[in-house]
What does this fold into?
Amino acid sequence: MSEPLAASGSAAQLSSAAGLARLGTKARAYLALTKPRIIELLLVTTLPTMFVARRGVPSVSLMALTMVGGALAAGGANAFNMVLDRDIDRVMHRTQNRPLVTGEVTALGATIFATALEIGAFLELWRTVNLISAVLAVSATAFYVLVYTIILKRISSQNIVIGGAAGAVPVLVGWTAVTGRLTWAPVVLFAVIFIWTPPHFWALAIRYRDDYAAAHVPMLPVVATLERTARQIVLYSVLLVALTLFFAAVGHMGVLYVVAAAVLGIGFLVSAVRLKREATERAAMAMFRYSITYLTLLFAAMAADVVIRHP
It folds into this structure.
């Protein structure tokens, strides 16, 4: 091969590699819009709920299709949230690397992407699962975007209390995917997630209260003392544990779930009381991390309980 041809070939290869690298960077930026870690937590509650609704193991295809639809809907909601909160994200240190702040994705591009995800979620759930699950999934997005992000987040210290309802909807989607209807059991599960959300998020907000204050977002730790916030966390924690034990009766759960709910609940209360006593960011972050472990293990125990008793 002559030198000019070799040089031309090398340039083409470099250009192709650079193009692929740019494409990969862009794909990662769009993926970041969906907040994958939050989606994981939502799906952790959806799947075990399906086991309880089925009183056993649901079909693999139904589980997969429901999880895909739920992930698309949650991803779209999170992308819309980033579009609307991009001014806040520029101010807060922990969010300054988000794609809309860095310019990796435009607001228009993110809006089109979020809309496509929501349409895809609705159609996928409607055609492969059922209409009620599809409606519930996109309704959660509408509530999260319109009620929490646009209305409550910037004006009320109760923003995450009310807005947390959106994060509780996936259990309803999981239940209706299996049964096609709602009963008291999924409503109580909805309440469990609804009550779990404030102490979980307030613990994180304690660590980043200066960020929220700079962005003029009235999270409870910003507008109230740490002591008052900790008292609220303890109050919600007590109610949370009571609801998880109440679900044992409503959901006809067995000994495994009851023991897990009690032991994990004691751990949750201990974390909350320690935060109230110490009133430090370190205790708050310990509470936040445990709250994630708590929810994951609670729902895992729920699914295990059903599978053991209904193989």
Q: What stands out?
A: The longest helix spans residues 3-33. The two ends are 67 Å apart (CA to CA). The chain has 15 helices and no strands. The mean pLDDT is 90.
